[in-house]
Amino acid sequence: MYNDKVMDHFFHPRNVGEIENPDGEGQVGNPVCGDVMRITLRIKDGRIEDIKFKTFGCGAAIATSSMVTEMVKGLTLEEAMKVSNKAVAEALGGLPPQKLHCSNLAADALHAAIQDYLRKTKKALEEDNATSLQ
Amino acid sequence: MSTETRKTPERHIYLDHSATTPVRPEVLAAMLPYFGDKFGNASSVHRWGREARMAVEEAREKVASLIKADPREIIFTSGGTESDNLALRGVAWAYRSRGNHIITSAIEHHAVLHTCESLEKEGFRVTYLPCDRYGMIDPEEVKRAITKDTILISIMHGQNEVGTIEPIGEIGKLAKEHGIIFHSDAVQSAGKVPIDVNAMNVDLLTVSSHKIYGPKGVGALYVRKGTRLVPQATGGAHERGMRAGTENVPGIVGFGEACRLAEKELPEESKRLSALRDRLIRGILDKIPDSILNGHPTERLPHNVNVSIKYVEGESMLLNLDLLGVGASSGSACTSGSLEPSHVLLAMGVPHEVAHGSLRMTLGKSNTEADIDYVLEVLPPIVERLREMSVFGRGQKSKS
After folding, report:
1. Which among A55, A57, B121, B284 has most CB atoms closer than 10 A?
2. For each successive 10 residues of chain B (400 residues), what is the average pLDDT?
3. Pair A77, A117: CB distance under 8 Å
């Protein structure tokens, strides 16, 4: 069912865990569907310095989570935002057709984490501005 | 790249006997002549035909004996699915003038459920009875669902996923009192627990060969004398006109032999399997925190273990077990081939996320106590590793 690369990421997932006090965090999926992914980010100078994932889900869900963390470490936020679910599946050498929808949400989790970071920094920036105007 | 993940494990422990079983050597030996020397068509008049006919009729007696039926009430089919289709559609079509209501349950096999759905499209009304948290159907619910239009009740005997044994004797009695035809899918229970179609008041009973160490592609439908069916396959006058098509002689011979052996070994094997089953269930519940038994604790098929391991998903457990040589199954969406987890677990009220973490292990002849202990040794670390990776249940650890 799964190719060797998928199995490799499933049995030896990269970057498992959770960054404490992350700069950005994102969680997608739904326990009802059986796949939930959570990504935490450390951002430095506009780049992803560190990334970790936690996933409840099937083989494909875990493998795509692992794959996406490997793909985007060191990328700028702009570059990372361009990584799609499809690109993750392709980097894994393909997924079984029935896994392309529900279990292939790792890039969405990444994007949610980046957006969370952007939201937080924007808010911090606004607060900074507000303070300096006083 | 990851050849180590595809290495052949040292042990091979098959725990998916509800999916299928190997053909046992005695059965294969009985079948072999009917592929070669004894290749006749059972409908032919000549010696080749008579030889095949005799073999088919002997097999019919063995199948009938397993369920305490008259051999003339056994129709050979291609397996459980065809038997269920023939029973439901056959009765529905034959008794249409009497009524259009069918009673079944939400936890039937898809061979029954999807046939019922197809009958609904033809204008039949179907009641899908709920079950309790143990997967048990209440005969009182059956009674309440009966209307003057009810022509058929179909409730399975042994539940294929969670192993609950349904009270079909009581339901059969009700059906008889109301003059309603009663079908039961006994694919998982035949050969595992005693069945007596007369004592249970069953009019139609589905049995399959490959679940009891017979070949695939053959099964039977017990049809009580006097029960009318509209045949689903039309053609020659095979199987008393109920199922056209040249008999699968080697398959039928193998099925018969499998039934004979199952009947002979049932008392002892059922006891042995029940003990292994209880050892496995107890071991999992003891060693893995937040694990739950699915199905009935006592009214249970002797070979069925079904547990939910919270915070982890079924397929990821199956892949890890497979790597260590253990073959099991799950009711998670990923393994059911749909987006929904097992309809049986959901009907029992198991939450979606817990249903995704279900693990079914079904025991059989090849399994020993050492196999069970091996599973109990390898499963907790798998669960621990997956839980560490999981979004849910942070900090949960297995007791070692």
Report:
1. A57
2. 57 96 98 97 96 98 98 98 98 98 97 98 98 98 98 98 98 98 98 98 98 98 97 93 96 98 98 98 98 98 98 95 96 71 95 94 97 98 96 56
3. yes
How big is chain B, counted in residues? Answer: 400
Interface test with B, best of A12, A15, A32 (most B CBs within 10 A): A32
Mutation target to probe the A interface, by most A beta carbons within 10 A, among B315, B332, B336 is: B315
A32 contacts A52 by C-beta, under 8 angstroms = no
Predicted TM-score of the model (pTM)? 0.93
Q: How far is A84 from chain B (nearest CA, A)?
A: 22
CATH architecture of B13-21+266-399: Alpha-Beta Complex (3.90)
Give the A-side interface with B, CB within 8 Å. 2, 4-5, 7-8, 10-13, 16, 27, 31-38, 54-62, 98-99, 102-103
| Number of other CB atoms surrounding residue A65 within 10 Å | 32
Longest dimension (CA), chain B: 74
Q: Please state the three-class secondary structure of chain A as a single string.
A: CCCHHHHHHHHCCCCECCCCCCCEEEEEEECCCCEEEEEEEEEECCEEEEEEEEEECCHHHHHHHHHHHHHHCCCEHHHHHCCCHHHHHHHCCCCCHHHCCCCCCHHHHHHHHHHHHHHHHHHHHHHHHHHHHC
**B314 sits in which H/E element:** helix B314-323
Does residue A56 contact residue B390 with C-beta atoms inside 8 Å?
yes
Choosing from A42, A102, A115, A120, the catalytic residue is: A102
Torsion from C-alpha of A97, A102, A108, A113, nearest 10 degrees: -140
Q: Where in chain B is the domain with CATH 3.90.1150.10?
A: 13-21+266-399
The token pair at A55 is 């996933």
Burial of B235 (0-12, 13-18, 19+ CB in 10 A): exposed
CB atoms within 10 A of CB B398: 18
Q: In what order do the strands lie in the sheet with B74-77?
A: B74-77, B219-223, B204-208, B181-185, B150-154, B101-105, B125-129
Question: In this complex, do A56 and B2 lie within 8 Å of one another by their Cβ atoms?
Answer: no
Hey, are the CB atoms on A33 and B333 less than 8 Å from each other?
Answer: yes
Render pLDDT for B95-138 as a digit per residue (tens, 0 to 9).
Answer: 999 999 999 999 999 999 999 999 999 999 999 999 999 999 99
Backbone φ and ψ of B171, nearest 5°: -70, -40
Q: Do A61 and B313 touch (CB under 8 A)?
A: yes
Four-way CATH pick for B25-262: 3.40.1160.10, 3.40.50.300, 3.40.640.10, 3.90.650.10 = 3.40.640.10
From-to residues of CATH 3.40.640.10 in chain B? 25-262
Active-site residue flag, A102: yes
Computed over its alpha carbons, how large is the radius of gyration of chain A?
Answer: 16
| Residue in B399, B400, B132 with CA at minimum distance from that of residue B289 | B399
